[in-house]
Amino acid sequence: MTVVRNFNTQKSSLAVQMARPGGRTVSEAIRAAEAGLESHREEGMRSLAVTLARLEAACAARGEGAEAQVYELASAFADAAGFFDTGPLYAAAFSLCETSDRMMAGGCWRWPPVEVHVRAMRLILAAGCESTEATRILQEGLASIVARLPRQSG
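Now predict its structure.
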């Protein structure tokens, strides 16, 4: 026969606080988080402009290791753009990540697709990251670049 034992466990202070009634609703917490994030938007856009300038410099230099630097910068750019409502800018940065990743993995690096992405990102950033007919056309063009690159196996 199995004997059931009860152990008197101590509750952590967090558990006690979580059990208290009141607090914020989920929608209130989301609104507060979005407002806090929006207060950093201007600083974030400046940071994106700096990273984009570094991408442009890497394209111009085309030095040793520039391919890996492009992917690293594009990835950092996409991460930062994803925090804010940058719509087509984030999509263009993600497309550049996919493009550079496929080219590096496939051993078929070419600079023109990278330069087209970087120029498109510059145009989108300068236009305030708005979704317009022009940005839709840019995104279609970038998607066609990615579609022409070999997919990674495995």
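Residues 3 and 9 are 18 Å apart (CA to CA).
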